Amino acid sequence: MILIVWAHPYPQHSRANRALLEAVRVLPDVEVRSLYDLYPDFDIDIEAEQEALSRASLVVWMHPMYWYSVPGMLKHWFDVVLARGWAYPDRHGGGGTALHGKSCLWVTTTGGTEEAFTAEGRHGHSFETFVTPIEQTARFCGMQWLPPMSLHGAHLVDDAAIALVRDDLVARLKSWSQNGKQSHAE
Amino acid sequence: MLSDVLIFLVAAVVFVPLAQRLKLGAVLGYLIAGVVIGPFVLGLVSNVDSIRQISDLGVVLMLFVIGLELEPKRLAEMRKTVFSAGSFQVAFSGAALGGGLLLFGLDVKAALIGGFALALSSTAIAVAMMTERNLLPTPSGQMAFGISLFQDLAAIPLLTVIPLIGVAAVAASSGGAHAAHATGWLAVAEAVGAIVSVVLLGLYAMRPLLRLIAATGLREVFTAFALLIVLGIAQLMSFVGLSAGLGAFIAGVLLASSEYRHALETDIEPFKGLLLGLFFVSVGMAGDFGLLQTHPATIAALLLGFMVLKLTTLWVVARLFGVNLRERWLFSILITQGSEFAFVLFLVARDASVLTQEWAALLTMTVALSMAVTPLLLVAYEWWAARRECAADQRPADAIDEKEARVIIAGFGRFGQIIGRLLFANGINAVVLDHDPDQIELLRRFGYKVFYGDATRLDLLHAAGADRATLLINAIDDVEDSLMLTDLVNENFPHLKMIARARNVRHYVELRKRGVRLVERELFESSVRAGRHALEAMGFDRFRARELADTFRRHNIRVTEAAVPLFGDDDKLVSAAKAGRDELAEQMARDRARFDAEHEAESQRGWH
Predict the structure, then answer these.
(1) Quick check: helix, strand or coil at residue B430?
(2) Is 0.95 surpassed by the pTM of this model?
(3) Interface predicted TM-score of the whole assembly (ipTM), two decimals
(4) 3-state DSSP assignment of residue B522
(5) In Å, how far is A74's CA from the nearest CA of chain B?
(6) 10 Å Cβ neighbour count for B44?
(7) Using one digit for the tens of pLDDT, what is the confidence trace for B433-449?
(8) Contact A13/B605, CB-based, under 8 Å?
(9) Residue A77: which CATH number?
């Protein structure tokens, strides 16, 4: 199962990110958890989230980029769901293997152009700089880090550009499902 | 009789505050008052015996109240102290004191009886001294109380043994011994029967009866019934020759887990206090001070020997049974004094000619004097301990009494229950008060510890521990009562933090005017939540609905707060409310415009 953990505070006001979500949510074997809809009071049901993660083989973190990072809700989700002794070992080194062997895909839309994400650009650093903490979060939990996908300058690009990224994402998830089924069959 | 009461009251009013002022404690004040009005100084009171009989009820009521404060569960925890430490103390102190009496030339039998009688301590004085200093809940206080409780039990077999020894000595050959034996068995059967019936009454009859009477709403009938329970049991117990106090104590323990515990305590308290005072006065009156003139040296030697032996043996008991070093002397001093049971024992021993008339009087005097010396000793100890603490420049940790709840919930209806359940689920204990007997019955069936009582009564708040609590939750549904409770708390327990439930805006304002900082309107939060769901149903994103509700709440609370000083002036209030509504509409429109500008999907500006 592919679990899409979606963090958008105002789904109705989303353009690029929602276009991506709507294309993948209809795929077979995909489950979407819209965090801001499930927990508008930030009262995350940790057990339910962990249970969904346990069933997934691929975890997709999908959200618009906020302040070079994930939206507050997804950060809170990291804080409480990826718990010690469950997602990483406890004080005595026991447990913490719940996510081992799963894969993680990061999908973001940003408000900066590719030129802005350079040492000389507005954001002063390459985009890869901002990937690091997210990537390490996944790796620390023993997940395999897949090449991330990002749609830069999402407010400037036209529908065709969005469609390009969307189709790429759909293709990747489809092939994951098929490969997953194959390896399952073996 | 009336003039006796008058004299007693005057003496109490004069001497007790005087003793308090001199930091000697109320017990000593009463004792001195007794000596002064007694036959040896002023001789104002003639019928000492009848006063003594009435005043014994003070001890009975005291034991009932102590029982009320002790739940069976805690009594079971104290079992070890009561029986092992108690029996060891009586045997050890008794043997040592008996040995001491041998040196004064008494024969073995007399020395043994005298020693055991002196080993007993006065529960009444010990508890009074501990209550004055709030020592009862401390470990050493519990230990002292447990041992004195055991001694009260031990006095009963002693009382029955003395005549047997005496009679056996006088008429061992006749059939008298056998007759005494037979009546002894009958007495045991009667005693067991009486205790069993008290237990059965306490377990099954009293609560329904109390509930019935509480439902009438007549306070004085409730008080009358409370007294009836105690005095009835006292009568039953003394009828079969048992300690009336023991019966009252058992009844108290059985009612300790009932919802009427605090109400009973509150109603009995004034009677208990006065009669206990009278009891101490009667002890003071009974002293045979003529002996001080005829046998000064003997009395002094007896008193000194008694105090030294008892203190040291108690110290050893404290050490053996795990009282910590810091509290060992305190514990020993608390129960050094001789017991009021000793008076009776000496009397019986004299009648059975185990003790001579002279020795019975001497020992009685020793015990009476020890009762006066103990409070002084405690004062001296406290002075010494305070100096030692100063010198060491370290204060002992405050005794945190986990048994005392630090939260009081007044009103346990729909509102209070939610709060209570949240607290209980997190291990926070609360004293819960409610005044609806049917409601309480229901809640108790669900396992909640709820006490019957009107929280707007000062004495009940005291009984619930308001002076020690840190938080009071005012969840009473009646507006008048809720405000009355608020005034009462402001006046008498200013340290107590309050969280209050407001029925409506007017109630909210009244509470805020009284300085209550944390006031929650009972329907506000749930209505706001329902409003959020309505926005969601109208197509708003869930998180957006929450943000809008948050804005609304903040604004609403601000406007309501602004109305507090305007209340009472309807014109100003109406215009303020109108202005508030317009302001809200305006603010939300501004907020909406800002949001739309930022998140407009169609504008192609958002990267979301």
Answers:
(1) strand
(2) no
(3) 0.84
(4) coil
(5) 14
(6) 17
(7) 888 777 777 777 777 77
(8) no
(9) 3.40.50.360
